[in-house]
Write a structure and sequence with these properties.
- The protein is α/β, with parallel strands linked by helices.
- It has a single domain (about 5-130), classed as STAS domain (Transcription Regulator spoIIAA).
- The chain is about 40% helix and about 25% strand.
- It has 4 helices and 6 strands; from the N terminus they run ββαββαβαβα.
- Strands 1, 2, 3, 4, 5 and 6 form a 6-stranded mixed β-sheet that branches.
- Strand 5, helix 3 (about 90-100) and strand 6 (about 105) form a beta-alpha-beta unit.
- The termini are far apart.
């Protein structure tokens, strides 16, 4: 999708759920531009769930800045349920996004992330079906 000198965004659908792979650098204005592009993809696909694979990010916002960033910048992606796939050494980012109030769960295995999100997707569908 997006191609910038400092980052790249790839997009695909897996069982109707968007999977977004982000590579490059997610700092300063790159992060804002990157999230704007991700928002466009999610809104275009009317997504309420997504998988974000950020294992290939080279640089990223400091995990201690996530709370402040989330509170000062609003993006559509903050409103959805997301499975974030990252490297084990970045687990502290998972804790930071949880404390920032995002509906995201951290994974190191993309298949576990898919299973969790797809299971959540079908559970929601069953509940909606029972309400009708």
């Amino acid at each position: 999708m997006g191609r910038k000198a400092d980052y790249q965004i790839s997009f695909s659908l897996n069982e109707g759920i968007p999977e977004i792979i982000i590579t490059g650098n997610a700092v300063c204005s790159n992060l804002v531009n990157m999230l704007n592009e991700v928002d466009i993809v999610l809104k275009t696909n009317k997504a309420n769930k997504a998988i974000l694979d950020i294992r290939s990010l080279n640089e990223r916002i400091e995990y201690t800045e996530i709370y402040r960033f989330v509170r000062n910048q609003h993006f559509f992606i903050y409103e959805i349920e997301a499975a974030v796939v990252d490297l084990p050494e970045n687990a502290h980012f998972g804790t930071a996004v949880k404390y920032a109030g995002l509906h995201w769960k951290w994974f190191t295995d993309i298949n576990e992330a898919r299973t969790w999100l797809i299971k959540s997707f079908y559970q929601e569908s069953a509940i909606l079906y029972l309400r009708d």
